[in-house]
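SEVERITY: medium
COMPONENT: batch folding queue
REPORTER: lab tech (J.R.)

DESCRIPTION
The queue accepted two submissions in a row. Attaching both inputs and their returned structure tokens so the on-call engineer can compare them side by side.

ATTACHMENT 1
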Amino acid sequence: MESSKTAKRKAVVGRILDLSVTTLDEEGFGLAVHETTRIRVAGALPGETVRARITFSGQRDTFADVVKVLRNSPDRLLTPPCGKGDACDGCPLISMKYRAQLEWKKGLVEGAMRRYPVLRDTEIMPVIPSPKPVGYRTTAKLVVSGKFAAPVIGIYRRNSHDVMDIGDCPLHHPLVNRVAAAVKDGIRKGKVPVYNPRTRNGILRYLVVRVSEREGKAMAVFVTSQRSFNEIHHLAKHLQTSVPEVEVVAQNVNSSTGNVILGDRDYFVTREQSLTDCIGDVRFTISPRSFFQVNNDGARSIYETVREWASLTGKETVTDVYCGVGGIALFLAAGAAKVIGYESIEAAVDDAEKNARANGIRNCRFEAGDAAELLEDLRDEGKKVDLVVLNPPRKGCDERVLRAAAALGPATLIYVSCSPETLSRDLNLLAGFGYRSVKIQPVDMFPQTPHVENVALLVRKQTDVEKPVERRKP
């Protein structure tokens, strides 16, 4: 048997190997094993034999890119929408037929639920597809790199700080790509200094583009290392001349050295400071830093599923935890007596209140603070809650939040999640607090990527409370 040192030497960067791919991991990489080394192959599909080049070999992970597919999977597209899929981490499933993507994502959710015995009878429904498998992303946060004579606007390459120009990205709304192209041209013509993170010289760091599909308008935010009126003013003028649909231009100053994109201050170049877009019949204000879903159709599928499963009669009190800018709360308002939204970010609460006023909705109130504390206060006040909606970030809910939500005793809980892993963990905990998971509706918010959103319906059990169980090892 060869030593681990010898096996490690065989995975040297640049080496070309023929590999048999067995499955996809949760990030969409094809998995193969060579000798004793597990290799994650970008752009490879299960059942394929590929010739691959090692691109990175670290302590824990080894990555490779496909050089040639020697044996095709029947799920492979002969002509994918983009030829950069094997090098771009933005859309690792773009070579896979869309039907196969949906089936794989359903399997991802089923696998997460099977790890907990108490969840194995939960119905996993077919994934709701996105009406637009490409061209759906209405928000893009792009890195600006290079020199002003040859600027690059795109995303970081895998395992590096090099920026890959993604040009006409098929996932982006066409307006996003037009704005990015015009900004590159404007940088060249205006000789705008591009920020260099190593030397900390230059001005322009990032480009954030947001699109209102309803209005057909766009917003561009230039993130700079310092306040620089002249360069940004001329760049904005060039952009609006080239792309008249750009209605809002802002400069955001971020002088930090970390990887956070937006700083704390916005300076508007245009008179207009926000866009308006709609999900269903609900209008939302889009400002440079406000949260808004990147796929309107997918968001509508989620909100409509929540509304259908809520089965409101007009008499209920609803609590929307992690409410963000009020999307779900405002969707439920017409069917409820009262909706209370909780959110830790004060700016999001301000946006939620503005969105409620813009839609003439008066039975919603929003409060900023710690979710667990706010739910515990609600219980201490003896308030009756009929429905709790949980919509946490990817890390899921703290156990204290789940316990506090269950302690309110709502007949129904609805959990909206962007991570099957943390969803299954939290549904298992909620089973221990008296709630049975009935069904899960996966929604494909992000076609061509491994991400899948889920809406879970839970009802209060009438039997003795079951204890949460530990996750089984795969």
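ATTACHMENT 2
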Amino acid sequence: MFYYLFSHHAAVYSNLSVFRSITFRTVLATVTALLSCLVPGPWLIRKLSAFQVAETIRDDGPQVHQAKAGTPTMEGILIIVGALVPTFLWADIMNPHSLVLMKGTLK
């Protein structure tokens, strides 16, 4: 999304041509992924704990795994958000490879 926004205006404002650089967009996508996981992470864990979406630990497993009891099990949502949000914002989403990546991640 930002790729098209800044690329379109780069012809008028030469300073915006840095957004065409894959290295610059990779750094911004990394920062965006980090923030999209760290900012809503504690809130999501509290909500999942409130809904009692918790890990069940079998009794016949190792005793060190008993410490995991009660841990929310759906933090994979954060990983998917942390992958898709930066891809949508900073990648060339009209590139077929980007579209396949995002569609495959959602399935």
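NOTES FROM REPORTER
The mean pLDDT is 82.
No errors were logged for either attachment.
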